[in-house]
Amino acid sequence: MLTIGCHLSRKKGFLEMAEEAVSIQANTFQYFTRNPRGGASAKVDEKDVAAYLAYTKEHGIRDVLAYAPYDANPATDKTSERDFTLMVYAEDLARLAEVEGPLYLIRPGSRLSASVEDGLAEVADALNNVVTPGMKTCVLLDTMAGEGTHVGTSFEQLAAIIDQVDHPEHVGVCLDCASVWAEGYDIVGDLDGVLDQFDRVIGLDKLRAVHLNDAAHERGSHVDRHTRIGEGLIGFEALAAMINHPKLAAVPFYLEEPDAALATYAHDIARFREAYRG
User: Which cofactors is this protein said to need (predicted)?
Assistant: First the structure.
């Protein structure tokens, strides 16, 4: 079964997101836990959550992905930024326990003036501060495009982070199509080879989510800029090959498009469902 959805807004609550997902034939979705540039998280309404949990069970919505704000930077060694990051992660994971959120996505962030090795170690240390043995939420590392001093840009760097985590069973990876393309992985011409490399370096059991997005810049550009699906340099056919790849049969997919209206996502989810051969 294809698990596919898109990015939705949490402004009107959890139930509203679930209802929007069903209205566009999605059976999953992702959302920001708070403003993507930081700030306080909205309080959880118990009645909204109860209605949401009942609705998701009734309509078969699963693998909902909560996305941490971009300003959370686990790779930094600056005390104020690190304190903010750990606060965000702790608060978000506590709220996800309330809403039975199975997946939490973080960006590995920027090492600034630190070495790559130190930046990777800082990310692992941040995870070790918030990942606990009994937690039910899996924390996912987003793949990065290699802009500036970002870490987590290669499969090897992601593996190095996970290798330093005390409870790696609660940590996985979200493969972002546009960012791995920008990093140089040829998901258009050699998807089999890319997935084989991921399996050798990290392990496909760690690939827990895929961002379906198209890229505005050429492969290897290290520029992570999205465009409408089918209008970029990855293209619809290559993204459709992702949802049909047997090694990704159990992985949920989330559409990301710039300034996309709900109708745009409905149109593109329908296109992917029509292209799905499962």
Answer: Zn(2+)
222 is in an annotated binding site: no
**Residue 224 labelled as part of a binding site:** yes
CATH architecture for the domain at 4-275: Alpha-Beta Barrel (3.20)
Where are the chain's structural domains? Answer: 4-275
Encode pLDDT of 42-75 as tens digits. 778 999 999 999 999 999 999 999 999 999 999 9
Instruction: Confirm whether residue 226 is marked as ligand binding.
Output: yes
pLDDT, tens digit, 9 for 90 and up, residues 86-141: 999 999 999 999 999 999 999 999 998 889 999 999 999 999 999 999 999 999 99
pTM confidence score: 0.96
CB 77 within 8 A of CB 118: yes
211 annotated binding-site participant: yes
Confirm or deny that 256 is annotated as ligand binding. yes
Q: Tally the C-alpha atoms within 13 A of residue 61's C-alpha that lie toward its C-beta.
A: 29
